[in-house]
Amino acid sequence: MQEESRGEASFAVQWMLRLSSCLIEPTSASSSINRQMSLLAGSYRFLWIPLAALAAAWSPFVWNMELTQSASRQQASYDRDSDNHKLHVFMRDAGWCWFQDPRAIVCDGKLFIGGVKGNGDGQAHVSVFDLKTGSRIGQAELHSAFDNDDHNSPVFHRRPDGSILTVYARHGRERFHCSRFCDPAKPLTWSEESRHERSMPNSKDMVTYMNFCELKDEGKLYLFFRGIDFNPTFVTSSDHGTTWSEPVHFFKDELDGRHRPYARYASTGKDTIYVSVTDGHPRDFGNSIYYFEYRNGRFYRADGTLIRQLATDGALLPSEAELVFKGSGNPSRGPSLSAIGAAWTSSIQIDNQGYPHIAYTLYHSNADHRYRIASWNGTRWVDREVAFGGKCLYDRESSYTGLISLDPVDPTFVVISTDVNPTTGADRDGQHEIYSARINPHDGIRNVQWKPLTVDSPVRNMRPLIVRTDDSRIILWNRGVYITYTNYDLDTVGIIESVSRSAGE
C-alpha cells in the first residue's frame, strides 16, 4: 500500500503505512527504511499476529485519511483574471502528468488535449482547439469525479477510419482502463464509456499511466501501462481499441521488494518502439537510465544488437538493457527526499535518421535538479548536462521538476521549465518559466542559448509538451497554481510557431 502513497501524505502517515506493510508482509520490504522496519518487527515475532491484525485494520483508515487530507487543506486557486498573459489558452482547468502519451494530438485542423481537473469534482475531460481560427471549440467531460489526480490524464489515437480513440485510467486504484471514441467532425460528442478489465497475477497489480504506440507493420496498437508486478506492461489491439489482448509483462525491475520502473515510449508508427526506463522511483533508489528497442517481439540495443525475445525469454531486465546513464544506486532517505544522484526519465524522441534522444532529470537536492540529454549518434551515446532545473515543485515529491521536453520531429529543439537561471543555476526568486533552445550533441550547459518564452509570471509554468504538424510547432504547458498532484488549478497554454520540415525541422 505504501508503494502508491499520495503526495498529500504526512510523515506520520507514511511511517504507519510502512510499519503496517512490514508487519503484514515482512519479506516484501521495498526500501532500506522498510527493511529496518522489518527487522524491528522480526525482533518481536510474538507480537506479529496481534500487531498484524491491528495494522491491517489501521491501514485502510490511514489510507482513507491520506486521500482526504487535501479536503482539509487550502485548495489550489488560480486567479485567471489577474494573469494578463498573451498566450493561447488551449484547455481550461486541467493538468497532466508526464508518464502518459500522446496527451495531445492534431486531427483535421483541431488540437485535442486531455487533462484532469485538480480541484472540485476532479473530472477528466478533453479540450478541442481550432488551429485555423485560433480559438477553443470547447471541452467535453470524459469521466466525472476522477480523483483530482494528474496521473489519470487521457491519451489519444487517430484510427484508420479517421475517428479518435481516447483511453484513461485511475492512479493505481483499479484493474481496468476506460475508452471512448469520437468523430473529429463532432469533436465534443463522444461515445459511451467502455471499461476494459486487466487480468493480472498479483492482487496488488492495478493499472496506471496510459501510453499508445502503433506498429503498422504488425497491424497492432500497443497500450503500455504500469501493471504486472508494478512494472511496465502492455496489451494490444488489432481493431484500434475496440478489443484488447491479455496483459504482457514487458520490463521487470531487479530491486529488492516491489518497485516501479518509470518508462517513456516513442515510435515512428511503423515497426519499432523505443523505450527509456529507470530502475524504480527516485525516492526509493538512485536510478540509472536504460534504453532498448522493441520490434518483431524482440528487444534490441541502439546499435541493432539482439538482446532477447519476449515470448520465450520473458520481460527484459535492467541489467540486460543498454545503460545510458549510471545513477548513484543510493538508497531511500525517507518520504520527502529523493536518493542523491537519482535520474528520472522525462522525454524520448527519434530523429530523422532513426536515432533516439533521451531527456531526463538528475537529482542533487530538493533545491537543485539538472536537465540532461543523451543522444545516440550511430556509434555511441553522447550524454551531457544542458540546464539547471531548479527546485522541486514540492518536497513530498522531491524529484518533481518543471521538466524537459524534446520536439518529436526535431529533437534538437528543446523546451524546459525552471525557476532558476538555466545556464548558471542562480535563483531568480520567481516562478517556473518556460525556455527553448536548439541543442546539438556537442552542446553543453555553458554554450546553450536559452530563449525565455515566459517572463516574470505570477504563477507556475510547467510540464511543457510539443506537438507538430507539417507546418507548425505547438508548444503547450500547464500554467497556474500547483500544490500537489491532487491539488492544483491549471490551464494548458502555449504558443504556435511556423516551421518547415524541408529546413531540417
Describe this structure in words.
Strands 14, 15, 16, 17, 18 and 19 form a 6-stranded antiparallel sheet that branches. Strands 1-30-29-28 form a 4-stranded antiparallel sheet, with no helix packed on it. It has a 4-stranded antiparallel sheet with strand order 2-3-4-5, with no helix packed on it. It is globular, with a radius of gyration of 22 Å. It contains 4 helices and 30 strands. The longest helix is centred in the first third of the chain and has 25 residues, at 48-72. The protein has helices at residues 11-24, 32-42, 48-72, 310-313; strands at residues 88-91, 104-107, 110-116, 124-130, 135-143, 155-158, 164-168, 176-182, 194-197, 208-215, 220-226, 232-237, 248-249, 263-267, 273-278, 289-295, 298-300, 306-309, 322-325, 343-350, 356-365, 368-376, 381-390, 404-406, 413-418, 433-438, 451-452, 460-468, 472-484, 487-498. The protein is mainly β. The chain has a domain at 2-72. Strand 20 (343-350) and strand 21 (356-365) form a beta hairpin.
